[in-house]
């Protein structure tokens, strides 16, 4: 706990302010404010001292050699892919070797039973039993002939031990049973592994084009076991769709007297009437919905239905397997010969490539004609060899689902498949993010018996790509065998995916025309290199509200194919790029305090804004026999993000222990040695970051009066924070808005708008600035950014910045002043000093607050709209950019000042401006829909025209660059418990402060006449809890009273006349505030529109 010897009458901050204002009173006020901010940054934060420290450190430079970077990354990825493939091969070999000896004895529980644990497994994100497997699937009810044994499950256990980041391992059999390890709880009466995409793709890995033709004639309204035949047919058709994967394509036709395509009319997946849709999750959902909407009526005309089905294949000359699944329950009303001739005419146009599989539902189906249709008896032999289909008679409609969904077995190839199948990545419903299934089929005597799989997190597979970046201008991306982007810096990280993703082609994000040639070469499995100008996109901070900025850079693209999954990797570097390496041999300060204070025994802990923290630590060097051997550090803590570790993904899924923290401390306080845990350059930046403590020790006692947090983050995954507290284990400083904003403003001071501090310090503002690689003789603009240093402070400080440097703001002849950032968001406004609710100052745009001023700035191009394409949620996003060359511009009603070396502008409002026509509402983490033909409107978004059918963006839809990803990483803090009875870290002495000192002090609150500690930092917490309990009791009593009165009223109403009851009903309708309908409407009007199908963003 820090105790101050004396209490200054004014903060050092305010002395600096007054001194600088006095010394620069003759300067332009914008320059005076710049001087104050730079002095504050250097004196309070110590950015210049940290940069000087880096400049005095030993750095070496070396040219970046693209092909070496590519080879090293490719080797690392290939080994990881090969290791993961070995898991499923080992499992497949064990199953095949044991298959003959397996019995029908089931030794494993069903998965629907409870799991013998009550803890969430960090790797699986749910409760699992790592000692046992379990069985589930429809086949269990049919007495299967084979169940897996303990030897096979032991192999699964060994796999998980050897590769702790893999997910579920499972085996699905041809008898419909799935054995999964580890055991978890899942209950489903309809699950059948044979109808899951992973099973079907492994059994028949080649892509398939499928058109499902469903009879919806009146006879399909007949019933079987209380279900209509049409509902049974719908279930079967939807199961077929469920078996498909995004490499397949699908169409749906329904027929009676006429035939209809599911995409005959305007549809949200943008398919033409006879266009096959890629079987992506979005398109499958649409087709399933279309099938649900079918109803039975009319006759049965086969010919028009089959003719329409063939039209789906007319423009395709590929060798993909093409099949029509034709389902009916009755005789055709058109002649058989005309049906067969129509089939022949259509199929001959595409070389007789289409197979027809027919299904007769019920006992009254004319089997022979369906056999003849499957055989295509009248086919044109000159058009090519025909592949005859199969007729399946389904006398028991309950079997239709199994029969139709097994259609893929018709295309099974003979021979044993040896190459594993990597499924198209999908969103895991249990919260594992983006995963892929690596699968291999297994055989017995050349017959398919099932499929073995292991689920792999894409974060694990591609972590080397995600955390790649030897310089601040190099990156890598990876595509699959058909060109889908799996990893790119402009895409969200795999672990942040919260829904089935839309996979893009490379050219959607790599917009240079030359990128098309790179893609073509990558798809051919070639290696190569090329250089051309390409677009670099970076976030301006908070990507949703502030947008992105982009520029063209001469780049070198180097690529090669990866094995064994035919992925292709590309590394992008800047031409003539230089890599700067820091070299430190020892940690002279011997201080390293990890952020896991709950695992640290030597730290002096205290309470800071409601969380456990530390502001200082003492320890002994050697035996502490001399007072000079006692070392004091200023109490900062170090967090190492996953990027700092050799195996980044393991750091995400594992829980750190006391032993881990002790090992970290031993490594970072000793001499530099090789480590299998951390990447080689992490040691250097941990040591360099320790200089923050030395800077802190030279600060005055009252630093924490207005400064809340001080921090420095380096791009290698090292983050240091003062006062020290525990952070989220996955926290990544480089993904936070303060870091991105500073990088976008390289060399300038970057300020945030007011926001709520994650730790409870209320409304704060962040200021940050980049730190570049050290140089002994002056810096140049191309020096690479190695980190960012920043601090958070009370938002009221800016009010005094304005009033001290702009005396005209307090002149009664003027309206007042406000400050905006370069995105047009208000940082401080003259009427915000006495805000009752500080949330009213969050995300407020100048167009919303001062539309008249905004209109003038837009008209004079000081504020310009910029757009980017957000592929994550398929939106065209529009934000604003404020820029000016001069120091100030004087308009009739206001003057705008350019605060040099920052992202800020000050507006002195001389007189009121008539309200301009604008469209704006507060942007609380989502963007409203843009209003057509309106120039003055807040940041907004429009739906992006996207061709879901072929999973491609319309090439001519816009020319704006892609947006930077909205991935800001995990929350800053997790759900940690703070021990009770901790002493306060800092005594603010609020009661003795003046109004000004009170307002700029983070933990104090001005009550109009006096200063006191903020309620949530005092004993009022307990009072609040007590009030909550009392309130709950009162609510319960009220509810009891309401129930009692309701019961009495109900009894009276039972005895009331009909006219009385009618009167009561009429009264309720007349009263617009009575009843629940109005409440629902009120709630609904305050709710933001849903993300899917609307343009709103819900990412913050």
UniProtKB/TrEMBL annotation:
Region (Disordered): 1060-1100
SUPFAM superfamilies: vWA-like
Keywords: Membrane, Signal, Transmembrane, Transmembrane helix
InterPro entries: Ca_channel_alpha-2/delta, VWF_A, vWFA_dom_sf
Residue spans crossing the bilayer: 1029-1051
A GO-annotated cellular component: voltage-gated calcium channel complex
Source taxon at top rank: Eukaryota
Signal peptide limits: 1-26
Start and end residues of each VWFA domain: 209-411
Any GO MF annotation of the entry: voltage-gated calcium channel activity
Pfam families hit by this protein: VWA_2 (PF13519)
Biased composition (Polar residues): 1064-1085
Name by which UniProt lists this protein: VWFA domain-containing protein
The organism of origin for this protein: Capitella teleta
